[in-house]
Structure formats: structure tokens, C-alpha cells
Predict the structure.
Amino acid sequence: MLAPDLTVIRIVLVEPAGPLNVGSVARVMKNMGLSQLVLVNPQCDPWGDEARQMAVHAADVLAAAQVVTSLPDALVGCQRAIATTGRPHTTLPIPLESPRAALPWLCTKDAQPGALIFGREDSGLTNEELNYAQRFVQIPTSPVYPSMNLAQAVAVCCYELAVAARGSGSKGEWTEPADERGARNNDEALAELGTLERFYRHLESVLLAIGYLYPHTAASRMKKLRRLLNRAYPTQTEVAMLQGILSQVEWALKPKKRNKD
């Protein structure tokens, strides 16, 4: 089996503020064989002199960078997404994995599009933005100084992706990483993240309609439901089935017309 194509994996930077970081990210991506850079609402000029000077021979990666206005736009077409975080989330506990443990999941033999998401230099990703990922990575660092520079964090993760893609095979062959959590779902394609997002919005609407959710608690409850369902890695077929259940519930809620004598 040939090694996975890392060019299908997107490196997503949410609101990067430093052009030097953006250029450095482009450079390390090219070093490790990645080429898709997506910038969500950048707070700097990603194609200015500073960025281009740091990119050096990765000017092509930088020039091809896609700019979008929101994180969902950056994930269109993706089936897998891993978010990076440098801080603990006490309000909603989430399992944090090391890059080496989690990133091989993005390296699929069938070239499924995936994304690795990085947050802002000063504050990282919001809890809402974390909702769009299925797994979460935290780079182990010294407690004396745990904060990492954005470009350095991307470099660590890109290296681990390259190692995972190279795998343990010989002569350029690749052995698919074992996934203890059953993410393969019998090799059926995972649901695209956009499909999942539409399902979650539909689910919230129905749960509000039947009184399971209340407007003032809906956001926190939906976060927990997202985590639960994301751990199952649903396929396109499974999400379609769940959508069908919601549609049937909506039909059952409609007032029935009585037959007139």
C-alpha cells in the first residue's frame, strides 16, 4: 500500500496575526510535504514582504493559501478534523491526545480530505470553534513554559504527519495506523463535516421543539451531544438515517387533519 498523500490535508490557521508566522508555516508545510494552507479571517497581510521572506522556497504554498471568513468554510469537503489546543477545558472536559497518537488518523489510504486546525497566537480556539473538530491535540511541553509559538506548533504537527504517512513499511510502502476507536466504520466513507453540521443544527431545532432543550441551556447541551456523536465517527449513510429520524419526528409533531363526515 502506498503512503497517504499529505497534500489532501489542510493546515487551517484561525485569525493569524503575525505575517512572520504565516510565512514560517508555509515553509514547514513544504518541508514536510503538505501544500493546502487555509487562513480564516487573517489579521495580517499573508502575502506581504514579511510573510514571503519567511516562506523562502515555499512561496508557492503561500501564494496558493486560501482565505475564508469562517471555520466552517475552511472545512467544506473535509471528513476529518483535529483541533489543537494549549489550554485545559474545565467547563467541557474533552480528551486531549498527543500529536503522535492522534495525527495518524488524518493519514487515510483513500485520501479522504482532512484538516488540522490551529487557533490564534494569543488565545487559541474558542469553545465554539472546538465544536467543529472530532479529536483534540495538545503538544506536551514543560510546565515551566508551556506556551508554544504558532509556527513551532505547526512544525511539530507537520513532522508527526510526515512520520505517520511514512509509516512502518519498507520500500515506500505504508501500513495504515491502527485506530483503537473504530474510526474506519468498515471502510465506509465518513460523513463530511458540513453534513454533520447541518445534522447538528437540525437536531437542535427538533430537541427545542419537543422540549428536551431550552433556549438558555441549548448551547451547553448541544456541546455534549456533539462530543458524544463525534466519538462515533458516523458515516454518510448513518447521518442520513439520523436525519430521517428527525424528519419523522417533525412529521409526527404536526397537527393531524381530522376527516370530516
